[in-house]
Amino acid sequence: MIHSQKARNMFDIVPARARFADGQKPMFIVKEATGRLALTVFGENRPLWHGVEEVDDRGRISLGDADLPGGSGYLLQAVDADGRRAQTGFDISTDQVRYGFLSDFDNDPAQGASPVGWLNRLHVTDVQFYDWAYRHDRFIAPTDEYTDMMGKKISRASLRALIDACHDRGMHPMAYGAVYGSSNEYAQQHPADRVYDQHGEPVPFFDLLSIMNVDRSRGWHDHILGEYQKALDFGFDGIHVDTYGTPLTAYDDQGCKLDLARDFRLIVDDARARLHARDGHARLIFNNVKNWPVDHLATAHQDALYIEVWDPYSTYKDILRLIEHARSMSDLPIILAAYLPQFIDGGAQEDYDALALLTAIITVAGATHLVNGENRGILTQAYYSKYFTADAEHARRIAVYYDYITYFAGLWADRGLRLVPLDAGRRGGKNIVSDCAALADLPEPGRIWIRARRSDDLFFVNLVNLTGSHDPKWTHGQNVRESEPFVLRVRTDRPASSVTYSTPDGPEGIEIRNLDYDTQQQGEAVYTCIHIPRMRVWGTVLIRL
Fold first, then answer.
1. Has residue 5 got a pLDDT over 60?
2. Residue 184 falls within a domain, yes or no?
3. How far apart are CA 451 and CA 462, in angstroms?
4. pLDDT of 305 higher than 70
5. I need a labelling partner for 482 at 20 to 30 A (CA). Which of 113, 167, 202, 344 fits?
6. Which residue, 363, 418, 332, 351, is CA-closest to 390?
7. What is the pLDDT of residue 426?
8. Are residues 298 and 371 in the same domain?
């Protein structure tokens, strides 16, 4: 993303699990350091605990007597005897879903944990196993080694090793399972279960698959739910229920028009009930392609509201509107699958800058971004197996961003924080005033997007710097330009007790600092006046009252 040269005075530390449960003692894996480490845990930009602990003979270290409440993310900073530093985010029982992917399943099983280690470095909680099945209508292959419908070689032993590695890191392995796609052979044998167009012709998906009728009255409904159960029996924790975004209008074999949105909602609820009858913790996530039919699925029985983003949702403002719309309908965690085609031909700096901006905007708006996966993979398209591999130095910066996302995991989508608009209205005056002409309440090229939310005692203010950008489309390369310092005056209506600033864009990772501030009175309004430092992509201000 930025600052691509790795700092030489750093070693590596990462949580042993993607998320720790309440009461579970956080444990960390240390690489390239031994002996005693000075540890500091930060929460919401404040140091909460400090101690000195020993790296054990397995290369692990704990937080000793630290007593940290659940429902929050944290930042751990470690310093060894030579003054070298390392840091990592970690999560204790938040409900944030950080989604990643795996798609290579013919590796040596002994190497099964390797790609999962990268996902754990990104604190991924749920892992989509993309195109793992023998056939879309027959998940489990008759042999241990097989080839899927796209010609991809798969090893059952490799699958099991990856599932086990996910479980070891506290991640949920999710089996990809298209809800209505079958092999053409199966479809030809079950014509009453197919979907037809207005001319009475079967609806294909390219030349490989046929679209099936998910209505409860048709045999496909129970057939695919049975395949979902087999995936759980194989060892998966849940199902990623995929759709292709087409058709939007379809008919059954009798020529009756189908209510596809209703039928999707019903089969999701049926799948949840069927899977929970086997395992009360089974997970389910449905793909709303192009944001359809999200209005029907927003309250379905699933574990996240997942939207695959395509045109016409092409700009940063569209991303914000998608998330705001989803949040208005659902209390579920929100995931956007937003792929970056600019990486197909490269991996230039402007591509990594586009990734940084998009991930920051999605996170600040209150969702998470599915784009990262195995082998430092970045998704460029809907067929995940053709991912782009980031170089090591840019991957390090990506990891820092996910430390930051995890660090504030308890705040990004906190429903208790109220949105603070820039303008309080005709009679109320301004909530936020600045000498920065580029400040805006929408993410637009050439602007610094500000997103402020508050509780009674805390202001959570995020800034995303698009001043170097001249293109509103997130699928294009972007430029990042450091902003000038500016003054921000936030109407707090009573004096602040502290103001802190943090950013994931420091040369050695996440930086946290105290900011000087003044209290200013304007009529009956009280403003906290803050000097914002130069920023690259993303900065966060916390004002405590």
1. no
2. no
3. 5
4. yes
5. 344
6. 351
7. 56
8. yes
Q: Are 55 and 370 in contact (CB under 8 A)?
A: no
Chain segment 34-47, per-residue pLDDT in tens: 999 999 999 999 99
E strand map for 238-347: 238-242, 283-289, 305-308, 334-337
Q: Could you tell me if 305 and 270 lie in one domain?
A: yes
Last residue of a domain, one of 60, 92, 124: 92
Q: In the prediction, which pLDDT does 112 show? A: 64
pLDDT for 1 equals 35
Paired tokens of 28: 């960390």
- pLDDT-based confidence at residue 107 (cuts at 50, 70, 90): confident
In what side-by-side order are the strands of the sheet with 388-389?
368-370, 334-337, 305-308, 283-289, 238-242, 172-178, 126-129, 99-102, 372-373, 377-378, 388-389
In 408-444, which positions are buried (b, 16+ CB within 10 angstroms) versus exposed (e)? Answer: bbbbbbbeebeebeeeeeeeeebbbbbebebbebebb
Domain tally, the chain: 3
Whether residues 371 and 437 share a domain: the answer is: no
Which domain does 465 fall in, by range? Answer: 418-544
Same domain? 133 vs 83: no
127 within 8 A of 409, measured Cβ to Cβ: no
In a domain, 207, yes or no: no
Cα separation, 36 vs 33, whole angstroms: 9
Asked whether the predicted pLDDT for residue 168 surpasses 80, the reply is: yes
Strands (E), 187-229: 204-205, 209-211
Tokens of 447: 């602007």
DSSP element (H, E) containing 99: strand 99-102
How sure is the predictor about 425, in pLDDT bands with cuts at 50, 70 and 90?
Answer: low
pTM: 0.95
Closest CA to 543 of 489, 505, 503, 482: 489
For residue 491, is it within any domain? yes
> Same structural domain for residues 134 and 32?
no
Identify whether residues 349 and 328 lie together within a single domain.
Answer: yes
Ramachandran assignment for 375, one of left (phi > 0), alpha (psi -120 to 50 degrees), beta (any other): left
Query: 265 with 174, same domain?
Result: yes
In this predicted model, what pLDDT tens digit does every residue of 202-252 receive, in sequence order?
999 988 899 999 999 999 999 999 999 999 999 999 999 999 999 999 999
**Do 468 and 449 share a structural domain?**
yes
Task: Find all residues with CB under 8 Å of 162, minimum gap 6, and list them.
Answer: 102, 105, 112, 115, 116, 129, 173
The tens digit of pLDDT for each residue in 119-153 reads 999 999 999 999 999 999 999 999 999 999 999 99
Provide long-range contacts, Cβ within 8 A and 24+ apart, for 278-282.
278/229, 278/232, 278/233, 279/232, 281/237, 282/232, 282/237, 282/238, 282/239
Q: Of 359, 377, 407, which residue constitutes the final position of a domain?
A: 407
CATH number at residue 40: 2.60.40.10
- pLDDT tens-digit readout, 448-461: 999 999 999 999 99
